[in-house]
């Protein structure tokens, strides 16, 4: 069960929100597959590792705080990423640009 302020797809952790793998929609409309949460080796900051589910299917990282944050869009505060589903499509090595 989520608190009022905790977005779907995010579980409340002891110190930091825990983001579960799955499909998320960015506030601009594109979808991404969250692979997991990692730590930056220099700063120890938690980052979300995710792959675009469109175009070249690039691999991205973003700070967990920014990933779970909100942005202003058309005068409204909206979540930067909205949880869509538990499973993302299987991404094979042949589809990966790396």
Account of the protein in words:
The protein has one helix and nine strands; from the N terminus they run ββββββαβββ. By secondary structure, it is mainly beta. The protein has a domain at 20-85: Roll (SH3 type barrels), CATH 2.30.30. The strands form three sheets. It has a five-stranded antiparallel β-sheet. Strand 7 (70-73) and strand 8 form a beta hairpin. It is globular and about 35 Å long. The protein starts with 9 loop residues before the first strand and ends in a 13-residue tail after the last strand.
In short:
The protein has a 5-stranded antiparallel β-sheet with strand order 6-5-4-3-9.
Shape: globular
Average pLDDT works out at 81
Please give the radius of gyration in angstroms.
14 Å
CATH class bucket of the domain at 20-85: Mainly Beta
Quote the beta fraction: 35-45%
Corresponding CATH architecture of the domain at 20-85: Roll
Helix content: under 10%
Widest sheet: strand ordering: 6-5-4-3-9
**What structural class results from the helix and strand content?**
mainly beta
Q: Might you state the CATH topology name of the domain at 20-85?
A: SH3 type barrels
How many individual β-strands? Answer: 9
Strand and helix order: EEEEEEHEEE
Low-pLDDT residue intervals, each spanning 5 or more residues: 92-98
Q: How many strands, what sense, and barrel or not for the largest sheet?
A: 5 strands, antiparallel
Could you give the distance between the termini? 37 Å
CATH evolutionary superfamily of the domain at 20-85: DUF1653-like domain
Number of helices: 1
């Amino acid at each position: 069960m989520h608190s009022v302020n905790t977005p779907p797809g995010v579980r409340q952790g002891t110190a930091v929100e825990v983001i579960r793998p799955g499909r998320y929609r960015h506030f601009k409309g594109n979808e991404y597959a969250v692979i997991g949460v990692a730590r930056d080796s220099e700063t120890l900051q938690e980052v979300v590792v995710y792959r675009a589910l469109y175009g070249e299917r690039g691999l991205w990282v973003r700070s967990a705080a920014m990933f779970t944050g909100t942005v202003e869009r058309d005068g409204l505060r909206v979540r930067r990423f909205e949880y869509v589903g538990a499973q993302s499509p299987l991404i094979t090595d042949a589809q990966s640009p790396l």
